[in-house]
Amino acid sequence: MKPETRIRPSDSLHNVRYEIRGNLARRAHELERQGYEIVSLNIGNPKAFGFRTPETMRLAMIENLPEAEGYCHQKGIFPAREAVVMQQQARGVTGVTAEEVFIGNGVSELIDLVLRALLNSGDEVLVPSPDYPLWTAAVTLNGGRVVHYPCRPENGFVPDPEELAALVTPRTRAIVIINPNNPTGAVYPRPVLEALARLAERSGLIVFSDEIYDQMVYDGAEFVPMATLVRDTLCATLSGLSKVYRACGYRVGWAVFSGRTRAAAEYLSALELLSSLRLCSNVLAQWAVQTALGGYQSVKDLVSPGGRLYESRRTLLKAVESSRFLELAPPQGAMYGFVGVDTRELPAFDDQKFALDLLEQKHVLVAPGVSFNVPYRNHFRVTTLPDAAMLREVFARIEELLHGYAAAAPAGGPEAGSNVVEATSRFK
Question: For residue range 116-172, what is the model confidence (pLDDT) as tens digits?
Fold first, then answer.
Protein backbone atom coordinates (compact mmCIF):
# COMPACT_ATOMS: atom_id res chain seq x y z
CA MET A 1 0.00 0.00 0.00
CA LYS A 2 1.36 3.40 -0.98
CA PRO A 3 2.25 5.50 2.10
CA GLU A 4 0.18 8.60 2.63
CA THR A 5 1.73 11.87 1.53
CA ARG A 6 2.00 14.24 4.43
CA ILE A 7 0.21 17.52 3.76
CA ARG A 8 2.10 20.43 5.25
CA PRO A 9 0.77 23.93 5.91
CA SER A 10 2.21 27.06 4.34
CA ASP A 11 5.53 28.29 5.70
CA SER A 12 3.89 31.72 6.02
CA LEU A 13 2.12 30.45 9.14
CA HIS A 14 5.30 29.76 11.12
CA ASN A 15 5.10 32.99 13.13
CA VAL A 16 1.31 33.31 13.17
CA ARG A 17 -0.65 32.54 16.32
CA TYR A 18 -4.03 33.30 17.75
CA GLU A 19 -4.05 31.70 21.17
CA ILE A 20 -7.32 33.39 22.11
CA ARG A 21 -9.00 30.61 20.14
CA GLY A 22 -6.10 28.16 20.28
CA ASN A 23 -5.21 25.07 22.28
CA LEU A 24 -6.70 26.32 25.53
CA ALA A 25 -10.03 27.05 23.88
CA ARG A 26 -10.04 23.61 22.26
CA ARG A 27 -9.39 22.01 25.64
CA ALA A 28 -12.25 24.04 27.12
CA HIS A 29 -14.60 22.64 24.47
CA GLU A 30 -13.44 19.12 25.35
CA LEU A 31 -14.22 19.72 29.01
CA GLU A 32 -17.65 21.10 28.12
CA ARG A 33 -18.39 17.97 26.10
CA GLN A 34 -17.49 15.99 29.21
CA GLY A 35 -20.16 17.89 31.14
CA TYR A 36 -18.11 20.58 32.89
CA GLU A 37 -19.38 24.15 33.00
CA ILE A 38 -16.61 26.45 31.81
CA VAL A 39 -16.56 30.20 32.46
CA SER A 40 -15.04 31.52 29.23
CA LEU A 41 -13.36 34.88 29.74
CA ASN A 42 -10.98 34.54 26.81
CA ILE A 43 -13.10 36.32 24.18
CA GLY A 44 -15.00 39.61 24.21
CA ASN A 45 -18.29 38.14 22.98
CA PRO A 46 -21.19 40.16 24.47
CA LYS A 47 -23.91 37.71 23.39
CA ALA A 48 -22.32 34.94 25.48
CA PHE A 49 -23.00 37.00 28.61
CA GLY A 50 -26.57 38.06 27.87
CA PHE A 51 -26.02 41.36 26.09
CA ARG A 52 -28.38 42.09 23.21
CA THR A 53 -28.05 44.08 20.03
CA PRO A 54 -30.37 47.13 20.16
CA GLU A 55 -33.86 46.23 18.90
CA THR A 56 -33.86 49.08 16.39
CA MET A 57 -30.93 47.51 14.55
CA ARG A 58 -32.70 44.17 14.23
CA LEU A 59 -35.81 45.92 12.93
CA ALA A 60 -33.76 47.84 10.36
CA MET A 61 -32.49 44.57 8.92
CA ILE A 62 -35.94 43.00 8.85
CA GLU A 63 -37.42 46.00 7.05
CA ASN A 64 -34.67 45.92 4.43
CA LEU A 65 -34.55 42.16 3.94
CA PRO A 66 -35.72 42.38 0.29
CA GLU A 67 -32.84 44.77 -0.44
CA ALA A 68 -30.25 42.31 0.88
CA GLU A 69 -30.69 39.41 -1.52
CA GLY A 70 -28.12 40.50 -4.07
CA TYR A 71 -24.55 41.76 -4.12
CA CYS A 72 -23.98 45.40 -3.28
CA HIS A 73 -21.17 47.79 -4.25
CA GLN A 74 -17.77 46.46 -3.27
CA LYS A 75 -17.31 49.33 -0.80
CA GLY A 76 -20.70 48.74 0.82
CA ILE A 77 -24.21 50.14 0.61
CA PHE A 78 -24.42 53.92 0.41
CA PRO A 79 -26.62 54.49 3.53
CA ALA A 80 -24.09 52.64 5.71
CA ARG A 81 -21.11 54.47 4.27
CA GLU A 82 -22.84 57.83 4.53
CA ALA A 83 -23.70 57.12 8.18
CA VAL A 84 -20.00 56.51 8.88
CA VAL A 85 -19.16 59.82 7.17
CA MET A 86 -21.69 61.66 9.33
CA GLN A 87 -20.25 60.09 12.48
CA GLN A 88 -16.75 61.18 11.47
CA GLN A 89 -17.91 64.71 10.67
CA ALA A 90 -19.66 64.96 14.04
CA ARG A 91 -16.33 64.07 15.67
CA GLY A 92 -14.49 66.84 13.83
CA VAL A 93 -13.00 64.83 10.96
CA THR A 94 -13.05 66.83 7.74
CA GLY A 95 -12.71 66.03 4.04
CA VAL A 96 -14.32 62.59 4.17
CA THR A 97 -16.99 61.37 1.74
CA ALA A 98 -18.61 58.00 1.18
CA GLU A 99 -15.92 57.29 -1.42
CA GLU A 100 -13.34 57.04 1.38
CA VAL A 101 -15.37 54.46 3.35
CA PHE A 102 -14.98 50.70 2.91
CA ILE A 103 -17.40 48.31 4.62
CA GLY A 104 -16.03 44.87 5.47
CA ASN A 105 -16.99 41.62 7.14
CA GLY A 106 -15.94 42.97 10.50
CA VAL A 107 -12.78 44.90 11.26
CA SER A 108 -10.93 41.58 11.08
CA GLU A 109 -11.35 41.34 7.31
CA LEU A 110 -10.43 44.98 6.83
CA ILE A 111 -7.20 44.61 8.82
CA ASP A 112 -6.12 41.97 6.33
CA LEU A 113 -7.22 43.98 3.29
CA VAL A 114 -5.62 47.31 4.24
CA LEU A 115 -2.31 45.57 4.89
CA ARG A 116 -2.47 43.35 1.81
CA ALA A 117 -3.00 46.41 -0.39
CA LEU A 118 0.04 48.14 1.15
CA LEU A 119 2.86 45.75 1.96
CA ASN A 120 5.72 44.41 -0.09
CA SER A 121 7.99 41.68 1.24
CA GLY A 122 10.05 42.98 4.16
CA ASP A 123 8.11 46.20 4.68
CA GLU A 124 7.87 47.06 8.37
CA VAL A 125 4.82 47.96 10.41
CA LEU A 126 4.97 49.32 13.96
CA VAL A 127 2.54 47.35 16.13
CA PRO A 128 1.96 47.81 19.87
CA SER A 129 3.02 45.21 22.41
CA PRO A 130 0.72 44.03 23.84
CA ASP A 131 -1.44 44.02 20.73
CA TYR A 132 -4.61 42.50 19.42
CA PRO A 133 -2.80 39.54 17.80
CA LEU A 134 -4.62 39.76 14.47
CA TRP A 135 -2.53 42.82 13.62
CA THR A 136 0.73 40.95 14.10
CA ALA A 137 -0.61 37.93 12.22
CA ALA A 138 -1.93 39.98 9.29
CA VAL A 139 1.34 41.86 8.82
CA THR A 140 3.20 38.55 8.80
CA LEU A 141 0.80 36.81 6.44
CA ASN A 142 1.03 39.69 3.98
CA GLY A 143 4.81 39.50 3.77
CA GLY A 144 5.60 42.33 6.16
CA ARG A 145 7.84 42.46 9.20
CA VAL A 146 6.31 43.34 12.55
CA VAL A 147 8.24 45.74 14.75
CA HIS A 148 6.63 45.78 18.18
CA TYR A 149 6.77 49.00 20.16
CA PRO A 150 6.46 48.52 23.93
CA CYS A 151 3.49 49.76 25.91
CA ARG A 152 4.87 49.05 29.35
CA PRO A 153 2.80 48.02 32.38
CA GLU A 154 4.62 50.56 34.56
CA ASN A 155 3.46 53.33 32.18
CA GLY A 156 -0.16 52.23 32.28
CA PHE A 157 0.39 50.52 28.89
CA VAL A 158 0.67 53.91 27.17
CA PRO A 159 3.46 54.08 24.55
CA ASP A 160 6.40 56.47 24.68
CA PRO A 161 6.49 58.38 21.35
CA GLU A 162 10.25 58.96 21.59
CA GLU A 163 10.90 55.27 22.09
CA LEU A 164 8.64 54.52 19.16
CA ALA A 165 10.40 57.07 16.94
CA ALA A 166 13.68 55.22 17.44
CA LEU A 167 12.17 52.14 15.78
CA VAL A 168 11.39 53.86 12.47
CA THR A 169 13.59 52.76 9.55
CA PRO A 170 13.50 53.39 5.78
CA ARG A 171 11.42 50.19 5.47
CA THR A 172 8.71 51.35 7.90
CA ARG A 173 5.38 51.86 6.12
CA ALA A 174 2.78 52.25 8.85
CA ILE A 175 2.01 52.50 12.53
CA VAL A 176 -0.87 50.68 14.22
CA ILE A 177 -2.61 52.40 17.14
CA ILE A 178 -5.25 50.53 19.16
CA ASN A 179 -7.20 53.02 21.26
CA PRO A 180 -9.03 52.26 23.52
CA ASN A 181 -6.67 49.36 23.75
CA ASN A 182 -7.30 45.65 23.61
CA PRO A 183 -6.03 43.85 25.73
CA THR A 184 -5.07 46.51 28.30
CA GLY A 185 -8.00 48.93 28.36
CA ALA A 186 -5.59 51.87 28.13
CA VAL A 187 -7.00 55.09 26.67
CA TYR A 188 -4.17 57.17 25.24
CA PRO A 189 -3.89 60.80 26.36
CA ARG A 190 -4.26 63.50 23.73
CA PRO A 191 -0.59 64.66 23.96
CA VAL A 192 0.61 61.12 23.25
CA LEU A 193 -1.68 60.79 20.25
CA GLU A 194 -0.59 64.19 18.96
CA ALA A 195 3.05 63.13 19.23
CA LEU A 196 2.30 59.91 17.35
CA ALA A 197 0.49 61.87 14.64
CA ARG A 198 3.46 64.20 14.17
CA LEU A 199 5.84 61.22 14.07
CA ALA A 200 3.75 59.58 11.34
CA GLU A 201 3.66 62.81 9.34
CA ARG A 202 7.43 63.39 9.62
CA SER A 203 8.19 59.82 8.61
CA GLY A 204 5.53 59.47 5.92
CA LEU A 205 3.80 56.59 7.70
CA ILE A 206 0.20 55.51 7.25
CA VAL A 207 -1.70 55.54 10.53
CA PHE A 208 -3.97 52.55 11.10
CA SER A 209 -6.15 53.51 14.07
CA ASP A 210 -8.15 50.61 15.50
CA GLU A 211 -11.02 52.30 17.35
CA ILE A 212 -13.53 49.45 17.70
CA TYR A 213 -14.03 50.35 21.41
CA ASP A 214 -14.38 54.09 20.74
CA GLN A 215 -17.37 54.74 23.03
CA MET A 216 -16.36 52.35 25.81
CA VAL A 217 -14.57 54.69 28.24
CA TYR A 218 -14.88 55.05 32.02
CA ASP A 219 -14.56 57.65 34.76
CA GLY A 220 -14.12 60.64 32.47
CA ALA A 221 -11.42 59.20 30.23
CA GLU A 222 -11.29 61.09 26.93
CA PHE A 223 -11.36 59.17 23.67
CA VAL A 224 -9.66 61.23 20.95
CA PRO A 225 -10.29 60.10 17.35
CA MET A 226 -6.92 59.82 15.66
CA ALA A 227 -8.32 61.21 12.42
CA THR A 228 -8.86 64.58 14.12
CA LEU A 229 -5.11 64.85 14.70
CA VAL A 230 -3.59 63.41 11.50
CA ARG A 231 -3.45 65.90 8.63
CA ASP A 232 -0.27 65.51 6.58
CA THR A 233 -0.34 61.76 5.97
CA LEU A 234 -2.97 59.08 5.41
CA CYS A 235 -5.08 57.94 8.35
CA ALA A 236 -7.31 54.87 8.30
CA THR A 237 -9.86 54.64 11.10
CA LEU A 238 -11.23 51.13 11.69
CA SER A 239 -14.36 50.46 13.70
CA GLY A 240 -17.62 48.53 13.52
CA LEU A 241 -20.74 47.16 15.15
CA SER A 242 -19.25 44.26 17.09
CA LYS A 243 -18.47 45.74 20.50
CA VAL A 244 -20.20 49.08 21.10
CA TYR A 245 -23.41 47.76 19.52
CA ARG A 246 -23.05 44.16 20.80
CA ALA A 247 -23.39 42.76 17.28
CA CYS A 248 -20.31 40.55 16.82
CA GLY A 249 -22.16 38.03 14.66
CA TYR A 250 -23.34 40.65 12.18
CA ARG A 251 -19.75 40.93 10.91
CA VAL A 252 -19.87 44.59 9.92
CA GLY A 253 -16.88 46.88 10.20
CA TRP A 254 -15.57 49.87 8.30
CA ALA A 255 -12.35 51.58 7.35
CA VAL A 256 -12.60 55.29 6.66
CA PHE A 257 -9.67 57.16 5.14
CA SER A 258 -8.81 60.77 5.90
CA GLY A 259 -5.83 63.08 5.70
CA ARG A 260 -3.79 62.96 2.48
CA THR A 261 -6.17 60.80 0.47
CA ARG A 262 -5.19 62.30 -2.89
CA ALA A 263 -1.60 61.15 -2.48
CA ALA A 264 -2.96 57.70 -1.63
CA ALA A 265 -5.12 57.34 -4.74
CA GLU A 266 -3.23 54.31 -6.07
CA TYR A 267 -3.32 52.59 -2.69
CA LEU A 268 -7.05 53.18 -2.31
CA SER A 269 -7.62 51.83 -5.83
CA ALA A 270 -5.70 48.70 -4.86
CA LEU A 271 -7.86 48.36 -1.77
CA GLU A 272 -10.98 48.67 -3.91
CA LEU A 273 -9.63 45.94 -6.19
CA LEU A 274 -9.21 43.61 -3.22
CA SER A 275 -12.70 44.53 -2.03
CA SER A 276 -14.05 43.65 -5.45
CA LEU A 277 -12.37 40.25 -5.43
CA ARG A 278 -14.40 39.27 -2.38
CA LEU A 279 -17.50 40.77 -4.12
CA CYS A 280 -18.96 42.55 -1.09
CA SER A 281 -19.47 42.25 2.63
CA ASN A 282 -22.59 41.03 4.45
CA VAL A 283 -25.35 43.10 2.85
CA LEU A 284 -28.16 42.42 5.33
CA ALA A 285 -26.23 43.56 8.39
CA GLN A 286 -25.08 46.72 6.64
CA TRP A 287 -28.66 47.97 6.87
CA ALA A 288 -28.20 48.18 10.65
CA VAL A 289 -25.31 50.66 10.42
CA GLN A 290 -27.33 53.82 9.79
CA THR A 291 -29.72 53.01 12.63
CA ALA A 292 -26.87 52.12 14.97
CA LEU A 293 -24.79 55.25 14.42
CA GLY A 294 -27.74 57.62 14.19
CA GLY A 295 -29.81 56.21 17.05
CA TYR A 296 -29.64 56.23 20.83
CA GLN A 297 -26.17 55.24 22.03
CA SER A 298 -27.12 52.74 24.73
CA VAL A 299 -23.49 51.88 25.40
CA LYS A 300 -23.24 55.10 27.41
CA ASP A 301 -25.62 53.60 29.97
CA LEU A 302 -23.47 50.48 30.22
CA VAL A 303 -20.21 52.35 30.90
CA SER A 304 -21.65 54.89 33.35
CA PRO A 305 -21.85 54.33 37.14
CA GLY A 306 -24.55 51.76 37.78
CA GLY A 307 -24.22 50.35 34.26
CA ARG A 308 -23.28 46.73 33.88
CA LEU A 309 -19.89 47.21 32.24
CA TYR A 310 -18.97 49.90 34.74
CA GLU A 311 -19.90 47.75 37.72
CA SER A 312 -18.09 44.70 36.35
CA ARG A 313 -14.98 46.79 35.84
CA ARG A 314 -15.27 48.05 39.42
CA THR A 315 -15.54 44.46 40.64
CA LEU A 316 -12.36 43.61 38.73
CA LEU A 317 -10.52 46.53 40.32
CA LYS A 318 -11.65 45.52 43.81
CA ALA A 319 -10.66 41.89 43.26
CA VAL A 320 -7.16 42.86 42.20
CA GLU A 321 -6.79 45.42 44.99
CA SER A 322 -7.64 42.82 47.63
CA SER A 323 -5.26 40.23 46.20
CA ARG A 324 -1.79 39.54 47.54
CA PHE A 325 -0.68 38.33 44.13
CA LEU A 326 -2.35 40.48 41.48
CA GLU A 327 -1.70 43.94 40.04
CA LEU A 328 -3.47 45.95 37.38
CA ALA A 329 -3.22 49.23 35.52
CA PRO A 330 -6.90 50.24 35.79
CA PRO A 331 -8.51 49.89 32.36
CA GLN A 332 -9.92 53.22 31.23
CA GLY A 333 -11.73 51.78 28.24
CA ALA A 334 -12.80 48.66 26.31
CA MET A 335 -14.04 45.51 28.05
CA TYR A 336 -10.90 43.83 29.38
CA GLY A 337 -8.41 43.76 32.19
CA PHE A 338 -4.78 42.82 31.50
CA VAL A 339 -3.96 41.47 34.93
CA GLY A 340 -0.40 41.07 36.15
CA VAL A 341 0.95 38.64 38.72
CA ASP A 342 3.54 39.94 41.20
CA THR A 343 6.63 37.86 40.53
CA ARG A 344 8.05 38.88 43.89
CA GLU A 345 5.31 36.73 45.40
CA LEU A 346 5.41 34.04 42.69
CA PRO A 347 8.83 34.27 41.01
CA ALA A 348 8.26 31.09 38.96
CA PHE A 349 4.88 32.15 37.55
CA ASP A 350 4.23 31.30 33.89
CA ASP A 351 1.12 32.62 32.18
CA GLN A 352 0.48 29.64 29.90
CA LYS A 353 0.86 27.06 32.65
CA PHE A 354 -1.37 29.17 34.89
CA ALA A 355 -4.05 29.43 32.21
CA LEU A 356 -4.03 25.66 31.72
CA ASP A 357 -4.15 24.98 35.48
CA LEU A 358 -6.99 27.48 35.90
CA LEU A 359 -8.95 25.74 33.16
CA GLU A 360 -8.33 22.18 34.32
CA GLN A 361 -8.68 22.78 38.06
CA LYS A 362 -11.07 25.74 38.35
CA HIS A 363 -12.91 25.56 34.99
CA VAL A 364 -12.16 29.18 34.07
CA LEU A 365 -10.74 30.05 30.64
CA VAL A 366 -8.54 33.14 30.30
CA ALA A 367 -6.08 34.29 27.65
CA PRO A 368 -2.42 34.15 28.76
CA GLY A 369 -0.52 37.38 28.26
CA VAL A 370 1.94 35.84 25.83
CA SER A 371 -0.99 35.56 23.40
CA PHE A 372 -0.72 39.32 22.90
CA ASN A 373 2.90 39.40 21.74
CA VAL A 374 4.60 40.52 24.94
CA PRO A 375 8.06 39.34 26.06
CA TYR A 376 7.06 38.81 29.70
CA ARG A 377 5.16 35.85 31.11
CA ASN A 378 3.27 37.19 34.13
CA HIS A 379 0.01 38.58 32.68
CA PHE A 380 -3.37 37.29 31.59
CA ARG A 381 -6.42 38.91 30.02
CA VAL A 382 -10.00 38.61 31.20
CA THR A 383 -13.10 40.18 29.74
CA THR A 384 -15.32 42.29 31.99
CA LEU A 385 -18.49 41.19 30.19
CA PRO A 386 -19.68 38.84 33.00
CA ASP A 387 -21.81 40.40 35.71
CA ALA A 388 -20.24 41.41 39.00
CA ALA A 389 -21.30 38.23 40.81
CA MET A 390 -19.68 35.97 38.24
CA LEU A 391 -16.47 37.99 38.26
CA ARG A 392 -16.27 37.77 42.05
CA GLU A 393 -16.58 33.98 41.76
CA VAL A 394 -13.94 33.84 39.03
CA PHE A 395 -11.41 35.79 41.06
CA ALA A 396 -12.10 33.68 44.13
CA ARG A 397 -11.08 30.67 42.04
CA ILE A 398 -8.00 32.50 40.76
CA GLU A 399 -6.98 33.33 44.32
CA GLU A 400 -7.33 29.69 45.33
CA LEU A 401 -5.01 28.61 42.55
CA LEU A 402 -2.43 31.31 43.29
CA HIS A 403 -2.46 30.46 47.02
CA GLY A 404 -1.82 26.88 45.99
CA TYR A 405 1.20 27.99 43.98
CA ALA A 406 2.51 29.98 46.94
CA ALA A 407 2.03 27.05 49.30
CA ALA A 408 4.10 24.87 46.96
CA ALA A 409 7.11 27.23 47.16
CA PRO A 410 10.02 27.06 46.61
CA ALA A 411 8.98 24.85 43.68
CA GLY A 412 6.32 27.49 43.31
CA GLY A 413 3.99 26.36 40.56
CA PRO A 414 5.01 26.74 36.91
CA GLU A 415 8.75 26.43 36.37
CA ALA A 416 9.58 29.45 34.24
CA GLY A 417 10.86 32.07 36.64
CA SER A 418 14.09 32.60 34.70
CA ASN A 419 12.04 33.16 31.53
CA VAL A 420 10.08 35.94 33.22
CA VAL A 421 13.23 37.78 34.27
CA GLU A 422 14.92 37.34 30.90
CA ALA A 423 11.90 38.37 28.85
CA THR A 424 11.05 41.39 30.98
CA SER A 425 14.60 42.70 30.63
CA ARG A 426 14.09 43.02 26.87
CA PHE A 427 11.81 46.00 27.45
CA LYS A 428 14.01 47.77 29.99
Answer: 999 999 999 999 999 999 999 999 999 999 999 999 999 999 999 999 999 999 999
Residue 420's pLDDT band, with cuts at 50, 70 and 90, is very low
CA dihedral 410, 412, 417, 420 (to 10 degrees): -140
Residue 416's nearest CA partner among 375, 384, 373 is 375
Q: What is the pTM of this model?
A: 0.91
Which structural domains are found in the chain, ordered by start?
Answer: 11-51+301-425 (3.90.1150.10), 55-294 (3.40.640.10)
3-state secondary structure the chain: CCCCCCCCCCHHHCCCCCHHHCHHHHHHHHHHHCCCCCEECCCCCHHHHCCCCCHHHHHHHHHCHHHHCCCCCCCCCHHHHHHHHHHHHHCCCCCCCHHHEEEECHHHHHHHHHHHCCCCCCCEEEEEECCCHHHHHHHHHCCCEEEEEECCHHHCCCCCHHHHHCCCCCCEEEEEEECCCCCCCCCCCHHHHHHHHHHHHHHCCEEEEECCCCCCECCCCCCCCHHHCCCCCEEEEEEECCCCCCCHHHCCEEEEEEECCCCCHHHHHHHHHHHHHCCCCCHHHHCCHHHHHHCCCCHHHHCCCCCHHHHHHHHHHHHHHCCCCEECCCCCECCEEEEEECCCCCCCCCHHHHHHHHHHHHCEECEEHHHHCCCCCCEEEEECCCCHHHHHHHHHHHHHHHHHHHHCCCCCCCCCHHHHHHHHHCCC
| Helix axes 133-141 and 106-116, enclosed angle (nearest 10) | 40
